[in-house]
Write a structure and sequence with these properties.
The chain contains 5 helices and 5 strands. It is an alpha/beta fold. It has one domain: HUPs (Rossmann fold, 3-Layer(aba) Sandwich). It has a 5-stranded parallel β-sheet with strand order 3-2-1-4-5, with helices on both faces. Helix 2 links the parallel strand 2 and strand 3. 32% of the residues are buried. It binds adenosine-5'-triphosphate and manganese (II) ion. The site of adenosine-5'-triphosphate has 22 residues, from helix 1, strand 2, strand 4 and helix 4.
């Protein structure tokens, strides 16, 4: 049913709960798992200080991806790839789905910044609305318990 599953991550606690679901689904279906982090491209040219900050943020994203890739391999997912791309996160995720023939996306309701503002973070909302493939949206446990 599913051969290629995409887990987009911003490296946050909000995404953490989606990781277990993505790994379990990949194992269940014998699917490949792609872990994708998108760094926002700066619109303006940066001074050295801002560039250093941006590099540090990018490095954080990269290590979040690597950590999840390692965990998935350890838990027995056969094919795991870690990818970092630059761009607008929701657009880059949707393009990745098209280009790489992903057939299921697994992501969190919330990520780094939006916690209690809305029902869904803006990246998840747009991906869920615009994706051609099913999107599994995983809440934080306490979020689910509030129902
Ligand atoms: P907002 O960004 O709208 O302020 P938020 O940060 O709480 O709110 P989202 O950004 O939509 O919520 O995050 C929800 C999910 O979207 C995350 O769990 C993750 O799966 C995905 N996501 C968000 N940002 C990125 C990113 N830069 N790269 C990859 N995946 C991302
Ligand atoms: Mn966000």
């Amino acid at each position: 049913m599913y051969e290629r599953i995409l887990l987009p991550t911003d490296g946050s606690e909000g995404t953490e709960h989606a990781v277990d679901h993505a790994i379990a689904l990949a194992k269940q279906f014998g699917a490949a798992l792609d872990v994708l982090h998108v760094t926002d491209a700066p619109v303006l040219p940066l001074d050295a200080h801002s560039q250093a900050l941006l590099d540090a943020i990018e490095e954080e994203g990269r290590s979040a991806v690597e950590e999840i890739v390692e965990r998935a391999s350890r838990r027995g997912v056969g094919t795991v790839a870690g990818v970092v791309r630059e761009g607008e996160p929701y657009r880059t995720i949707l393009d990745y789905v098209d280009e790489e023939d992903v057939d299921l996306v697994v992501m969190g309701t919330h990520g780094r910044t939006g916690l209690d503002r809305y029902l869904l973070g803006s990246v998840t909302e747009r991906v869920a609305r615009l994706s051609d493939v099913p999107v599994v949206i995983v809440p934080r446990p306490d979020e689910a318990a509030e129902e």
